[in-house]
Amino acid sequence: MSVTAPSGFQAAGIDAGLTSGTRPDLAVLAAEHPAAAVGLFTRNAFPAAPVLLSRRHVAGGRAKAVVVNAGQANAGTGAEGLADATATAEEAAARLGCPSEQILICSTGVIGPRVSADRIRKALPRAVAALSGDGGSLFARAILTTDAGPKETVAEGEGFLVGGCVKGAGMIAPDLATMLAFLTTDAAVEPAVLDATVRQAVAPVFNTLTVDGCTSTNDTVLVLASGSSGVRVEPGNPAAVSFEAALREAAEDLAKQLVLGAEGANRALVVQVEGAPSDEAARELSLAVAGSLLVKTAVFGGDPNVGRLLQAIGDTSVPLDPDDLEIELGGQPVIAGGRVIGFDQDASRAALKEREVLIRARVGTGAGSATGFGCDLGYEYVRLNAEYTT
Amino acid sequence: MSVTAPSGFQAAGIDAGLTSGTRPDLAVLAAEHPAAAVGLFTRNAFPAAPVLLSRRHVAGGRAKAVVVNAGQANAGTGAEGLADATATAEEAAARLGCPSEQILICSTGVIGPRVSADRIRKALPRAVAALSGDGGSLFARAILTTDAGPKETVAEGEGFLVGGCVKGAGMIAPDLATMLAFLTTDAAVEPAVLDATVRQAVAPVFNTLTVDGCTSTNDTVLVLASGSSGVRVEPGNPAAVSFEAALREAAEDLAKQLVLGAEGANRALVVQVEGAPSDEAARELSLAVAGSLLVKTAVFGGDPNVGRLLQAIGDTSVPLDPDDLEIELGGQPVIAGGRVIGFDQDASRAALKEREVLIRARVGTGAGSATGFGCDLGYEYVRLNAEYTT
User: Terminus-to-terminus CA distance in chain A, angstroms?
Assistant: First the structure.
């Protein structure tokens, strides 16, 4: 059900001929009434046209609908690309009877080519006609590129729901697998409160996720709140606590599905770091391990080459004392006092074969902690990325 | 000839049983008279024991000899590891008749296991007896791990020579392919002048080199000057100009050999960045492209997916204006004004098949420039790194 699990939303996914083969590739999510809306966007210096447009539109705090196309990222397309995105927003606004500033646009696919704004314009009436209260799963399918399958979630709050879906086949953000995430809720949340909660509960999850360390031109997280449940979220009230927890639960579920569904990935890497000088330092350390090519290939090979964990966590600018470093792999200590210690090779090999490979590092006595999500890297990643446009 | 091309040096490489199979794995470089010496070391937070020792010893400005073992990195080995390195330095000092502070130590191999200090101690007399004025090539072979072959260089200055060799099979610095570089010269240079010249001419070359973005626990560059040629290098004199040029030439030659010899690599990526706000910003941008997994796999696949160049160069914190971005691939413009433009696909495919793939980016009107060196990434990299210790 993904984005249509909460009440107040309809969605659709149709084949608009934007990708090769027969598959849905144009997705629309519409709120019955303009919803409170918040967006997080890529920090790449060359954001795609739909990012430029949506960043401006979402600043108004309200959105009627989100239109997503797969096939082309509409990045590296200059002024024409922006005109294409604007035309799509205007057409959608006309069909849905709202100002075009209430339309948010996302694109995902190859960087460089323009989108077929004409095909999108012609297909939009059909997509709007197909909007349905249980269209969430079709929406979740229509936003995919090289993803193995849709990634959906529903989390239950006290009297409301949070629903969502995500696409991202290879990472946080190569050009072929830009990460797009959509979360909806029927809780009633003012835009400013929604913004603060998303920054608190959602941003850290998607910012500790790495597949290949590449931040795309299109990365976008959009969160819409319809208010249809009647449950009001206000700073400090019980609903706020429940809302933040449900949002985080939904985001973490999507994050795990994303790394497990990454191009060529077989295993999720979950790297918990504690005792760092700050949460930000812990985040940096967890990503240094989760994103290390040497760790990723060792996990792919099921090779307990634990010296690489020490190398990787030392490879940031965070000041650390070797004497304080303790690392566990799958619950078994493998590094203590900065030294690779004797450990059960069979047990560590078994831990590397789990669907989730758990690495826990204590780096000192600070209060900072973070959990990073990554995945292994094998031959299939190379095959997919060596042969993408050709 | 590598490190013994300049006069005043002898070298040897012998089989001390530190690696499996029959191959030289213990290398010694000795100066006739204590040489001016400078070192650059890894910034990893968990430096190997030999790094801790050599950093302290080289601070004295003079070195009699360098002892290198392959097989074990002597990193993640705690106090015992430091004792092992110290014992090796003391044994070498006794054999060569110098204070142990004039001995520099390097280790390369797997992180975690201790070196066999006992085997090294027993083999050192044999290595010292084997020292010879043309032992440079044996030295260059004895420092290798998974390298495909030795990487040596000689550059000619006005009245003196610079010789060198490097090891590093996979990168700047995974745990199996720590980068070690050794440069010698028979120019006469005081330690302080040598230090300044090395930081000016050598450090930037090795700092714009990436294979997998992993900085090892053992990376070391050692530069020794014997003075045997009688040519005095002093700040501002003609010999200083010639010396800096020869040092840079030798370092760049070794850098290119290193990326071309990287694990599983078929091609060198040479990324020239101009118009950046500063040289440091240009360095960061060149490494973002040379180190991008998506660029590396596209080059491996011979796939002119040029949108990835735009994505990669945007993926740093350097502020850039899309309108200013121009990129050439193999001399052909592919991105102009921040847009992927029409280009000759066949020509770009051919450019991607060259031994050196040249990417040139102009990012603005600043004075900063840099050249980054990288390589492609294919199946063989994954195979080597998934199966290293097992």
Answer: 35
Average pLDDT over residues A237-253: 92
- Chain B environment of A306 (Cβ under 8 Å): 112
How confident is the model at residue A200, as a pLDDT? 86
- Give the nearest chain B residue to A292 (CA atoms): B214
| Type of residue at A380 | E
Contacts of B310 in chain A (CB under 8 A): 46, 75-76, 111-112, 217
Choose among B150, B140, B154, B55: nearest CA to B105: B55
**Token pair of B387 as six digits:** 């199966």
Three-state secondary structure of B131-146: CECCCHHHHHHHCCCC
Q: In this complex, is the C-beta atom of B335 within 8 Å of any C-beta atom belonging to chain A?
A: yes
Which residues of B are known catalytic residues?
178
**CA distance linking residue A296 with residue A290, whole number of Å:** 7
Whole-number Cα distances in Å, B386 to A242, A288, A358, A378: 43, 18, 18, 8
pLDDT in tens, A146-194: 787 898 999 999 999 999 988 876 544 333 345 788 889 999 999 999 9
Given A178, A210, A217, A371, the catalytic residue:
A178
C-alpha distance from A157 to closest chain B C-alpha (Å) = 37
Query: Which contiguous run of DSSP H or E holds residue B213?
Result: none
pLDDT tens readout for residues A191-239: 999 999 998 888 877 777 666 666 667 778 889 999 999 999 999 999 9
pLDDT at A67 (0 to 100) = 96
A101 DSSP 8-state letter: G
Read off the pLDDT of residues A110-130 as tens digits, 9 standing for 90 and up.
888 899 999 999 999 999 999
- Per-range mean pLDDT, top range of B183-192, B291-300, B369-378: B183-192
* DSSP SS3 for A275: strand
Q: How much is the pLDDT for A177?
A: 40
Chain B positions in Cβ-Cβ contact with residue A382 (cut-off 8 Å): 297, 300, 377-379, 381-382
Taking the C-alpha atoms of residue A232 and residue A160, their distance in angstroms, rounded to an integer, is 10
What separation in angstroms does the CA of A338 have from each of A29, A304, A361, B79, B158?
51, 17, 11, 10, 48
Q: What is the pTM of this model?
A: 0.77
Q: Cβ separation of B45 and A337 shorter than 8 Å? A: no
pLDDT at B360: 97
Which residue type sits at B101? E
Q: Rounded distance, CA A3 to CA A6, Å?
A: 7
Instruction: Tell me the residues of chain A between 264 and 323 that have a Cβ less than 8 Å away from chain B.
Output: 292-294, 297-298, 300-308, 310-320, 322
- What is the reported pLDDT for B113? 86
pLDDT at A66 over 90: yes
Q: Do A301 and B386 touch (CB under 8 A)?
A: yes
From chain B, pick out residues whose CB is under 8 angstroms from the CB of A312.
214
Measured between beta carbons, which residues in chain A are less than 8 angstroms from residue B385? 293-294, 297-298, 301
Helices (H), chain B: 49-58, 78-96, 117-129, 136-142, 191-201, 203-206, 238-260, 279-290, 293-300, 307-313, 345-351, 379-386
The minimal CB distance from B310 to the residues A111, A325, A381 is found for A111
Asked whether the beta carbons of residue B293 and residue A214 sit closer than 8 angstroms, the reply is yes
User: Which residues 175-214 of B are in CB contact (within 8 Å) with A?
Assistant: 175, 212-214
Question: What are A291's two structure tokens?
Answer: 């994103």
Chain A residue with the nearest C-alpha to that of B313: A45
Cα separation of A239 and B295, whole Å? 46
Helices (H), A334-389: 345-351, 379-386
Yes or no, beta carbons of A75 and B320 under 8 Å apart? no
Q: Dmax of chain B from CA atoms?
A: 68
pLDDT exceeds 70 at position B196: yes
| pLDDT on residue B178 | 57
